[in-house]
Major facilitator superfamily (MFS) profile domain-containing protein
Amino acid sequence: MAVTTFAMLFATNDFVILACSFLTGGIFATWFAFIFSIPKEELKEATTQIVTWAMSTFWVCTFVLATINSQLIGWSVDLTGGFTVGFTYVFALMVVSPVVALIIFPKEIVKEELRTK
């Protein structure tokens, strides 16, 4: 995904930019759902309804943030007349997101403690 994002940043051919944008979106959409699906066994005393509510809340928040980011990127393209600022913003999000995820999501030790209780 980083390769296609860099290609969008530095390409001059509109077809290459368009193709890389579709590839980036496809790659992002494919792995995103698999990483953030919560198996029922991971939650203590979870029912199907609890997992459904948890994942629904997660996806609503995710799509709200994605919409806000898309609007910011579109606004930057309109403001600057180019894609460089927008793609730089996307690349910054790709770098910052895993760091934030490491801070926010529970660690394996916490998961083990929840399983044994």
Observations:
- The radius of gyration is 18 Å.
- The mean pLDDT is 78.
